[in-house]
Each structure stands twice: as structure tokens, then as C-alpha cells.
């Protein structure tokens, strides 16, 4: 399943229909970086690679290069170079074939013939939902060969079928279903059923191009499953219904929630579960229809097949909106025009589910998989991993399994009114679909550590990865952790293990200017889980341009910007200073502020301070204030006009904040008795004005 059915066919390099042109202004710089590291990369030259995927994001820009032989891609090879927002290379990884044999790269059979041979070998019949055949230089077997790699998904047989054949003589070298099923954890009820009919092959019809007519709708769904919302154990009226699954009970139906659907397709009065992010499809048997209707309210009880359809649609659409619109992380399928296709009833009825090439298919055995939000989010997690990496998803150490579990747990943990930290089920994965007679489920409170706790079983090992990231989630919260997690995955490749993924996630957080305290939490949690985290080189991130207004004389007193600059190193012990120093008076104009972080060594960054002329007497009066007595020994009084909701910060001459306070009235008294004698700056945060006083 559920547990994961993920087709690596489309997660490996060279199998994708990319959404954007693969060009980058940084290609030359990236190639120069590669050229300077040829010895480490163990390739002959940067001319043996081709730029295949570019991703611009909130953490920078990632370029992915594929190894080539005579313009033919070498299967499953890659060099990843990531630039941070300052245009510096901040992360790199590679999966390179070291000993490439120069072979004949001219095929002797056609692609069409390769597809014919493949179809016969795997018994393709009925509707084909996906098929492609590509040439690769392939060294996964005994000898390096030129091969056709044909991958096919079709309605009559679940999974994604890969056929590797010699492109010179047509010899079949490998045939396998490259979907990853639930493996050793499954019971005897979990199997990959097939039902080939022998019908003539034909391709899924293409819909006519038209302007989509979306409008809001509603649906009844589980959030995230009926047991979690009711906080009860599986059994009795809270069970699937022994021998007659999907039985309605008053208790289960009471756990449904009415939710809004931002977009539902309305074509000539026919409403369909289709949005700009997600669309229902029949991809595999059984074919139960697309549940179109004459209104936009999909209000099913759980015994209706339409309930699973509406439930899966809501959760996938909601998750993708959260990622793209709330987090600001661009993440869409690389196929299907950027729309996720899902089938709520596939797998030929078996108890399994899978992701493959921009599609999700949910099985129906035992508890229907599309009834459990954890299953839906877990499988979607594989898709996110796939799309973010341009098809370079990794299952090393169960990385993608753990990523799917994290994504599901992050969603369900954020829901209110469900399990509490005192409940064992708080950490469970698949509360409704598993931890019962169906199968054992998993947890994000797994005790094993990396790498000694690895057992070479991807679903079990993935729990180490999901557990540690949920521990970070518990401290940093959902938004920060999700954003760093996704942007970090986007730096990985098809050979990345959990160790390097941890480094990538932390680096993404650094690139996005997370506070040093946040970075330290990540380092500590990853280290405690057994990952070896390298020391962080000292860096400092400056704020953007600061625009302020001069006083009536055309002057502005520079405040301390230490709180706006972010110094990051392993111990978070850097001292931040600035030039010009706080207290310097500057005229109208643009001034370069240099912030310096020092901890053994020093690094700096710059930003512009734009001082604008005062707009007039009214604006000067509005921001006029006085501080008295000055000098002062125990207290100072700040008096001025329109100070409601004003916030002040007091800095010493080292740029260290010593006092922070909100001014509630137009006259406030501040206790300075604990300050050392010296000169201080009061900085008015909203007015962006400052004033000196002396403590004596």
C-alpha cells in the first residue's frame, strides 16, 4: 500500500515530462564549480554532462546535470548544484557512474519495435494510462549496454511495469513491476492482484482543451480519520464492518465533517472532482465511475464509493494548496500539465495504494485506503519528493517512506480535537487503515537510531527519518518544519541517504534565513538521532533595504540593526557589529550599512539604508518625542504624540539590545537602573526614528 506503492520508474532520471524550460543563468557558474571539482566527482570533464532540470525556489536555485555518453543519458546519474539566495553554491551532491565504458550508442531496433516487444512480454491490454520508451546507457547489470527502457501502466494490471531490453538485438534483460508495495510488513491479505482481460490495447482518451469553469463546492470527509477525531480504538461500530466492508454506522458517519472545496469543475452543469491542482481519473480496475453529479455538494456517507472519491480529492487538493499558496513552495506534478490524477478505487480491489508519475491509486481491501487521511498524505508525500527532485526520488534507508510518513503525521498532528500527546495513538501512522486486523501500521515515535538501527527494510527504516523530523516539528512548529523539509528534499538525489538528507534539510533552513536558534534545534535533534552533522561555517544574513525619514533638519540617527541581521554558526555565539555604528548621524541619501559577525573569524554582509527627506511639518510633529531626564540614573520618561502601539528597543553602543517595550500611552516611564553607565540608543520601531540618552 499504503504503506507505499511508489513507482521508481518515474522517480529515476530521464522519465519525466518537465513543466519548464531547463535553462539557467547560473549554468556557466555551476559548470565552473563542477570543473573545479572533477577529481572528487570522478568524471572526465564538464562536457560529459547535460543540464536536465532547474528549480527556482524560496531557498535558492537548484541545477541538476545528467551524465551523458554520445548525447545518450546514463541511467540514474546526476550532479546537483544548489545556489543560495545570494547566488553562492551552498550545497552539492552527486550520483555518478565512475566506470563508464564507451559503447556503440546507435540502436539497431526502433523505439516502436521496443514497445511492441515490451507489450507482449507484460501482457498489455485494455486502456493504457502511461507508456514511454527511452534510450539509456545502462550499467545496472553485468555489462554496460545501450538499452530501451519501456515503462507502462495500464488499467487491467496494477503497478508500473519496466522492461529493459538490449537496443542492439532486442534481448530482454529485465522485467519487473517497479512499484514498491508494502513488503515484509504485509499480511496475507496484501497482494498485487491482476485481472487482465486480453482486450485490445488503447490509450486513455485525451480530454478536449477547454476553459475550465471552476466554482466552490462542499464535501463530507474524515479529518483525518474517524478513530482519531472520536479518539476511540478500532472495533465494534468503529470498524470497517466484518466481512462486509464500508458498512455505515451512526458512529462513523458522525465523524464526517463538512468542508469547503475551493474549486470544482462545472462543465455545462455537470460537476466533477477536478480543480487546478487535482483531478479524479479511472486509472486501474475496478472502474466505478467518476462520480459526476448535477450539483457541487459531494455529500456521501462512507458506504458510498463516492465518499472515498470526495475524501481523497479534498485532502490532496487541500495539501497542495497549503504547499503552493501558504508555504510558498512551488511543487506540482511534472506530468499531466501539473495536475495530480487520482483513482479512489484501483489496485484491482487489493489492499494496497501507490504513487507513480503524477498519479495516486488507492486500493479497497479491508479499510478503503482513501478513507484514511494518513494514507492519502503519505502517498502524496512520495509525489512531492518526486516533483521537488525532478524525478530523483531516493529510497535509500527508506528515505521516501519516512518522508511520506512525516508528511502525513505533520498534517494530522496539526488538526485540533484529535489525539493528545498522552495517547499512544498520537504517534501512530494510519490510525484507521492500520493498527488493527488489516495490518500493523507504523509510528513516528520509533526508538531506533541511525545508522545502527537500520534493518534494511525501507518501511521500517523510514520510521527513523519520520520520527526525528516530527521531533523538530514539535519545537519549531508545522510551518517552519514543513517548509525546511520540502526545500531540503529538493536538494537530494536518487542515491541520498537519511544522513545526507538531514544535512540538506538543515541547509535549506539556513538558506531561508531561519534563526540560529532554529538551526541549532535541527542540529541537536538530528545529532541525537545518530546523524553526523558537519560544523556550520559562520555566516550572516542582512535585512533588505531599510527606508526611513529624516528629521526636520534633514538628519537621521542610525539605530542598531543587530536584531535584524541573522548570524549563524554552530554554537550561535557570534557577536554582531555594524558600520556606521549605532548613533551615527547621516544625511538624506542612500547609505551602505555593513553588518559583521565575529566568532573566531569574521564575515559580513551589506544592505542599503535609504534616508528620505521629511515630508512636511505634519509628519515631523507626528513623530516628535522627547526623552528626559538626560542624563538619567534610574528612569527615563518618553513623551510624544501618537505613540499608541509604538514599540521601542534600547541598544548599547555595542549594538546589543538591552530593553524592549511597547508604549501604551503618549507618556511612558522606562526603568534603566540595571543598565551599566554609558551611552544608549532608543529606536522607535514603527516610526523608524532614534534618540540617544546617557545613563550615569
From TrEMBL:
InterPro entries: FTP_domain, Secre_tail, Zinc_Metalloprotease_M4. Residues 627-692 form the Secretion system C-terminal sorting domain. Residues 1-21 form the signal peptide. Gene3D superfamilies: 3.10.450.490. It comes from the Bacteria. Pfam families: FTP, Por_Secre_tail. Residues 63-90 form the FTP domain. Keywords: Hydrolase, Metal-binding, Metalloprotease, Protease, Signal, Zinc. The keyword Protease applies. The keyword Lipoprotein does not apply. This is T9SS type A sorting domain-containing protein. It comes from Flavobacterium proteolyticum. The lineage of its organism: Bacteria, Pseudomonadati, Bacteroidota, Flavobacteriia, Flavobacteriales.
